[in-house]
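Bit of a strange request maybe. I'm writing a small parser for structure token strings and I need a real example to test against, not something I typed by hand. Could someone generate the tokens for this chain?
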Amino acid sequence: MKKQLLSLILALLIASTACVTAVGGSTAILWGDVDNDGQVLIIDATLIQRHLVDMIRLDENAQKRGKVSGGKELTILDATWIQRFDVGIIDRFPVESMQPTEPPTQPPTEAATEPINEVTKVKSTIPIHFTNNKSWTAVYAYLFNSDTGAALKAWPGTAMTNPVTNSFGEKVYSTDVDVTQYDRVIFNNGAKIQTTDLPVTKASSGYFIQGKAVGGKYLAGVYPYGQDKEGTIKTVSFTYPDGYKKNVYIWLPEGYDAADKSKKYSVLYMCDGQNLFGQATTLSGYEWECDETVLSLMQNGGDGVIVVGIACGSTEARRNHELTPNLGEVATVAGEDMSTYQNGGGKVFSDFVTDTVIPYVEQNYNTNSIRGIAGSSSGGIEAFYIGMENMDKFRYIGALSPAFILYNKPVWDSYLSSKDFSGDVPRIYFYCGNSTMDMLEQALYTNATAMEGWLTNHGYPTDKMITKTDADAVHNEGFWALYFPEMLSWCMDL
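Reply from user aminoacidic:
Good idea to test on real output. This should exercise your parser:
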């Protein structure tokens, strides 16, 4: 009985071989037949997957037969289409409808259309929590709108009462916020002691005092209130095209189950991956707190997000080279040696992300088609460049304190004029601080805040961009961590 069933399955698979199409009068192609054995089977999808992670190298003809999605490059999507064809979900590849042949006698099934991935909309009113770890005698929450200046209540704001005591003996205060009305909060003691302006978003939950910021205000950190889970970090090492090993850190949100194929996750790819999830490897003593932000979003009813951090080069010069796109003559900056930025290797880094990291992640983890790219400083300009070069691959871009100063406006105009912004383009979140106590952040401020206007001049839709600033913010992960929840919320249109 088993032999008969196996024979029947094999017969069905062989009978469902893809259409043979003649392209422009050339030799007929059996689309999906990567190994050229006259059949389209699961092994053909496997060969594409192995090729994408550099386990094997397919020749040009094999790659051509494998591009069943109709794209210019061989991607993991081609392997997915072949898998669907192999089990009978579809009977025709997208590329075949692009060829000059007679239409099929039967229309493609509905399953042949790639589903549109959407994010879960999060409720507008969320609870936020403040841990009084400095033992203030009173706690107030001053809530206001950063665009209009409208405040929920005059300074010092709403008195926070009825705290609970956490396991450290600290009092934790809570209040509900309509984040469609108010997007900033300043926690204070009712007098002169206060935090900096803190973004409040659909990915916000808990705040605590990290330490002194510039100007006497306190810098806050973020955390998912009531949770002691941290998710899971996987470390994978790849050989970078320049010949050395590069670590990639893959953070999986709490509850991720590899066996549950019905649950798909969006993925955010980030430069400077060593600074995202822990303080041990950071230079400033702060981290991005990406895991805390995603867990907070999930607490508020949002979806989990896989965060993938690509480590930078092991030296400053190597990092400068990797994360600088070569757009032309690097600008002269007084008192700075700009030689390590000239002829940057940003394209190599970009290709490494799109051709190696993304295929690996999508082959090995439960992901959907929603991708983001983000970074700060040199990582900010590189993330922007990667997004511009691959607008079809990313839904959003986050450029925080981006080093757009590396090129003057004429260079940027030349680069942006080469792009076509008439189609569906990524959402872009720009941010930069402007503290008088930080010369670097101030130097970056002008071009970072001008980029939205430059893009508008070249036809980029204004509703796909936003720029946020902070007069107290300096150039470090502590402030980027505060604005990361806002970036994620706005970019994903929660």
